[in-house]
Amino acid sequence: MILAAEFERCADRYGGGTAVSGPDSCLGYDALHRAGLRAAEWFGGVRAADERPRIGLAARNSTAWVTAYLGILHAGAVPFLIDASASDGELERISEDCSLDLLLHDRDAAGEAVPVLPGLTAVQRYTAGRRHPLHPDTEVCRFTSGTTGKPNCLEFSGQAVRAAAANWAAGTGMTADDRVLCCAGLSNGLAFNTSLLAAFLVGAQLHLAHGLPTSGRIRRLVAGSRATRLVAFPALYDSFVRTGGGRADFASVRVAISSGAPLRPETKERFTALTGVPMGNYYGVAEAGPLTYSTSTAAESLGRPLPGVDIQTRGPDPQDGAVHVRSASMATRYLNAPGLLESRIDDAGRYATGDRGRLEDGELVLTGRSHRMINVGGRKVDPVEVGEAVGAVPGVEQAVVLEAPDQHGEPAVAAVLVLRAGSDPGEVRLRLRGSLADSLAAHKIPTLIRVVDALPTTVIGKPVLHELRSLFDTGTR
Amino acid sequence: MPAGPQLIRDGVLRLIVASHEGEISVQDVEAQGGVLEAVNYTSLSYIRLLDAIENEFGVYLDADEGGEALGTVDGIVTAVLAELGSDAA
């Protein structure tokens, strides 16, 4: 139980200093540790199929989230960290696929939900039966959007989680003087790796935000927390730049960190011009954690590898190679897709990211991103998963889901449909939203839709994606 | 409806359409009773909308404090009018 012991050491080391604050409360290191141990007593009684209960945590950022996370670890159980925006149907599928024993959430409590911590209730999920065994070293599970029609559950050892946090803190110069304002959900790699254990390891303060990260909201949060570090997806910085920053006082902020999706060079430049704050951009992948960090003003560079990270680019073209990475924070495997992660890791332990790029004076420059998934504002969407859900909507005969630019030039989830005979396109469009709301998170539901008589296909029957993408060129509808 | 609030309403509807990812009209919004979720408004669209309202009307709407009311055209118009005070009435 590496992580439980690490958090205990943090409490011993930093005592009464402020550890975490959120919309619900503020806790010092000692108080957080005690609260975690109290929660552990409750989690220790969870009925489970084996000696390591699997506890899903699907909630927005709060101190209760952190307390629950620590409580699960101290109880010797395994937290499964799930995006708070997951739909009820997605939670159901994850619970079944990963054989969760208990699900903690912050939604309206109904049925057999039991209050556990302020704002968090639990629903027993335990069902006897076969389940994929956890790796003996696994202490935390998180999810990627997958590429196989369902979220892939990543298993992480305590050592890997600690390494990600320690290397991030060291590589970015985080200290006990830092106050980290985290606007990304803690289940997401951006927040999990850069803000949670990383802040506690050095005795920094973690300030949690949830809700829509609009420019106006962030100005107020920065002023209230006197944050030294801002952690957010590019959408927040785009928002800030769109409003011109307003009357922003960012004097306390030393760096603004962005990841999860490409940051536009003009956003980076304009944000710094408006606030005087340099932007730290990093490259990371869910399977391997944070990999590089850069505060360079050069628009293209994603920076040098963090400690413990090795990056190679492979292929005949040195300017455009396949990016392979090895890090101390690698996931062990996918719990619910045996063999898949291992198939993407070579004998030397390097993971094929699917991205392309080059190393320029030791700094990573990406030349092409993997198109396995659609990236909507930092959230990855699996087109296969969405395509299957859309294909099941009444009136839809065939569906292909792909990425297309919206009217703002941002990547959006698009769908091309072939309808069943007699179906009315207008009615199906309207039905789509209602039909998918229970099975998909809101950001996965297609916002761009085209209806065609037949899908263009290759000789082997695969959809011709470039032809489908052209349907979304400006002006066509 | 007095001219001021109607102008605000027209402006809000225009911004709702402009902030969406590209597939809706004012008629679509009205046909769904002004409920943004019903026209597939994503969180990114909603952020764009709140930014646009701040830029256009000079008012800051807090989506969390505003709760579900800010998920409809009527709710947003009411909130903008409240922030503007009597100027628009």
Automatic annotation (TrEMBL), chain A:
* The keyword Secreted belongs to this UniProt entry's keyword annotation: no
Q: Where is the AMP-dependent synthetase/ligase domain?
A: 7-335
- List the Pfam families: AMP-binding, AMP-binding_C
Residue span, AMP-binding enzyme C-terminal domain: 385-462
Q: Which Gene3D superfamilies match?
A: 3.30.300.30, N-terminal domain of ligase-like
Q: Which UniProt keyword terms apply here?
A: Ligase
List the molecular function annotations (GO) for this entry. Answer: acid-thiol ligase activity
Q: Which residues form the signal peptide?
A: none
Indicate what this protein is called per its UniProt record.
Acyl-CoA synthetase (AMP-forming)/AMP-acid ligase II
TrEMBL record, chain B:
InterPro entries xref list: ACP-like_sf
- Reading the lineage from the top rank, the first entry is Bacteria
Q: What is this protein called?
A: Acyl carrier protein
